[in-house]
Design a protein that fits this description.
By secondary structure, the protein is mainly α. Helices cover 84% and strands 0% of the residues. α1 packs antiparallel against α9, α2 crosses α5 and α9 packs antiparallel against α10. It is globular, with a radius of gyration of 19 Å. It starts with a helix and ends in a 5-residue tail after the last helix.
Length: 229
């Protein structure tokens, strides 16, 4: 593994873990895993996050080809410093478990209009476990699609997506994708397996402060580094 790939990997991994733990999509995965088969929730959420990471890295990689690398470097520096201050502000401002309560309320609002769907889903799940369903059929199941759509649109325009674009514009895009995918896999697996009990124990304030410090470190490093022509 080359030095540029390793640097992109480590930066992306650290950024992804600190951005996704305590994020809305993290809590959504934890709550969905309590109501539906974990395998389908995990595959749906992970697929959405991997697609989002690849798309973001591609945009970041293409950006220097559309505008000068010097401009993309300066924009990336400003993004990192801005996200760092944003995260620090959120860490000092917000109380604990606000994200969890907000996501749970939204999912409950979507869940209640279906009435007895929860019991029906459980019965259907028991029946599907007895049957040997093909992998292709599982990818088109309502549970997979629900987990995918909630995660994908929840990440769209999010701070972590924009940071991935900026990181891919300044670092090796392959390393950024690899680190992002590994980080997403670690966080999503922890959310699905740990469920609400794990999610409720996470200190959003500490995660936000740690993420803010990391973004500022990346911003300072980007500011001090030279731009490759």
């Amino acid at each position: 593994m080359s030095l540029s790939v390793l640097q992109g990997f480590t930066k992306s991994l650290a950024m992804t873990v600190l951005s996704e733990i305590g994020d809305k999509t993290f809590f959504a995965a934890a709550i969905l895993a309590m109501r539906h088969p974990r395998r389908l929730v995990l595959s749906g959420c992970l697929t959405a996050l991997i697609v989002m990471t690849i798309l973001s890295a591609f945009v970041g990689w293409a950006a220097p080809n559309l505008i000068s690398r010097q401009w993309t470097h300066h924009i990336t520096t400003v993004l990192f410093l801005g996200f760092g201050l944003w995260s620090l502000r959120d860490g000092f401002k917000e109380g604990e478990s606000e994200e969890l309560a907000e996501v749970e309320a939204k999912l409950n609002a979507d869940f209640k209009p279906n009435g007895g769907d929860s019991k029906a889903v459980r019965k259907d799940d028991d029946e599907t476990k007895k049957k040997n369903r093909s992998i292709l059929a599982q990818f088109f199941s309502p549970i997979f699609l629900k987990a995918f759509s909630i995660t994908f649109f929840g990440e769209w325009g999010d701070k972590s997506q924009l940071a991935t674009i900026g990181l891919a514009a300044d670092e090796n895009p392959f390393g950024v994708v690899l680190g992002g995918v590994v980080g997403q896999a670690l966080c999503t697996t922890a959310a699905v397996l740990g469920g609400k009990s794990l999610a409720s124990q996470i200190s959003e304030k500490i995660v936000a402060l740690a993420g803010g410090i990391l973004f500022i470190v990346f911003g300072i490093q980007s500011f001090l580094s030279t731009v490759e022509s």
